[in-house]
Write a structure and sequence with these properties.
Blueprint lengths: L2 H16 L4 H11 L5 H16 L1 H8 L4 H12 L13 H10 L9 H4 L4 H11 L1 H10 L6 E5 L7 H11 L8 E2 L6 E4 L9 H4 L3 E3 L2 H10 L6 E4 L6 H9 L5 E6 L2 H14 L4 E5 L6 H4 L5 E7 L20 H19 L2 E11 L8 H10 L3 E4 L1 H5 L12 E3 L1 H4 L4 E8 L2
Parallel strand pairs: 5-6, 5-8, 6-7, 8-9
Antiparallel strand pairs: 1-3, 1-4, 2-3, 9-12, 10-12, 11-12
């Protein structure tokens, strides 16, 4: 760490706070425009950048201002627990006096949302849904960054133990920290920040970056060989690729999305993956004529719905500041419309799977219970009856519910419905 890195980080934070783009996009853009910054300095800047964003409210409170530079200094002292002496070579005399004044500052227990850097509305809603202790424990857990997870592509016929061994040989310094994921039988966990984009296993399609929770969701869809599958909100296609792998590249997967850019990213990934059973379809909205023409045709329909993404705060901490109660209500209405439209694709006897990476009941349980109430031609299929086929045991609850505290995955919710008439 050096003075220039701190200065650069403060600059990116100032830009990020004024821009609605995702934090990772702003960081990547900064590095593209400043290619002379070395890899070690980039890693340091990224660590500071995400650390400050995760703890934004707390740092503002302690610093007594929204000054990015001061917030970085407070982060070093209060979050990373560095002594002032350790960072004297990085700061001015004025900075030293500032830090001495805040060094012993403590917050009372009554300001949990501040300590956890959660918006007040979010804290209140979560406490009403899961209680104060669980909310505190989960929110505390999500202040820490997540490991990197990759999915082993079965289409390449390279066993997971062989993949792990090759990764360990490539990264000897962290080899002991590379292991199979606990829940997913096709996942590998690596320390965060591991650079795999130029690794032969990645370039050759043997592995794809995908959180373990997302991998588990693909199993919840339980596609069979030769089936017709719709990935209704495909995005960049991570789950489409995982489904193709589970189907042994048979049948047909339709990857629907409203974004041409996201589908273009899927096209690049397809070339690496070896999958040939995925058809990309750009749609204008959930009521596109392409959807109407395919009513009742699909054995499996996955709706990985647009949501707040609050279950991914370990990876995307800026999402806390992107949403409020108004945007949540808009998303709930959008989710309902998408789920209803997607359900029309499902054939009798087929499965409709609704999923989010949210931790809010309004986007999860409340949404699916409302769907069942208004669609008597669908019935809930308990997740255990599906996951037990793959020897993945996730309790007796009827819905798939994963979280970072209990499962060390991103937070995922999934519900399966069977169309009965």
């Amino acid at each position: 760490m050096n003075k220039v890195s701190i200065k650069n980080c403060a600059e990116i934070l100032n830009i990020s706070y004024l821009d609605s783009k995702p934090a990772d996009s702003k960081l990547s853009e900064f590095f593209r425009n400043n290619k002379k910054i070395g890899s070690q300095d980039r890693a340091c800047i990224a660590e500071l950048f995400y650390g400050v964003i995760r703890n934004k409210v707390y740092l503002e409170k302690v610093a007594g201002s929204k000054d990015s530079y001061q917030m970085i200094l407070v982060y070093l002292i209060k979050i990373l627990r560095k002594s002032i002496r350790e960072i004297l070579h990085l700061i001015t005399d004025k900075d030293e006096l500032f830090l001495k004044n805040i060094k012993s500052m403590k917050l009372s227990q009554s300001v949990h949302p501040v300590k956890l850097s959660l918006p007040g509305w979010m804290w209140t809603k979560l406490v009403s849904e899961m209680g104060e202790k669980k909310t505190f424990d989960l929110a505390s857990n999500m202040l820490s960054p997540a490991n990197l997870n990759v999915r082993v592509n079965a289409l390449m016929n390279k066993p997971i133990n062989v993949v792990i061994e090759e990764l360990r040989l490539s990264f000897p310094d962290i080899s002991k920290d590379i292991s199979e994921t606990i829940l997913s039988p096709i996942g590998v966990s690596l320390p965060r920040g591991t650079s795999i984009q130029k690794h032969p296993l990645f370039l050759n399609g043997n592995i794809e970056v995908q959180d373990e929770g997302s991998q588990i969701l693909s199993y919840l869809v339980s596609p069979k060989r030769g089936q017709m599958v719709a990935d209704f909100c495909a995005g960049a296609g991570g789950k489409s690729l995982a489904l193709s792998s589970l189907m042994k590249n048979t049948g047909r997967i339709y990857a629907f999305d409203v974004s041409e850019k996201r589908l273009a990213n899927l096209k690049k990934r397809l070339k690496r993956s070896g999958a040939s059973n995925i058809t990309m379809q750009r749609i204008s909205n959930e009521n596109d004529i392409k959807i109407k023409r395919l009513r009742g045709k699909f054995d499996r329909v996955l709706v990985d719905s647009p949501c707040t993404g609050l279950g991914t705060l370990r990876r995307n901490p800026d999402l806390k500041w992107k949403h409020n109660e108004k945007s949540l209500n808009e998303l709930i209405s959008k989710q309902e419309a998408i789920l209803n439209a997607a359900s029309s694709l499902c054939k009798v006897g087929g499965y409709l799977v609704y999923a989010t990476c949210s931790i809010l009941m309004d986007e999860n349980e409340n949404q699916v219970e409302n769907f069942i109430k208004n669609n008597i031609n669908f019935r809930v299929v308990p997740q255990r009856s599906i996951m037990s086929r793959y020897k993945i045991i996730l309790g007796d609850g009827k819905y798939l519910k994963l979280n970072s505290l209990e499962n060390n995955t991103d937070c995922f919710f999934g519900a399966v419905f069977e169309r009965v008439e």
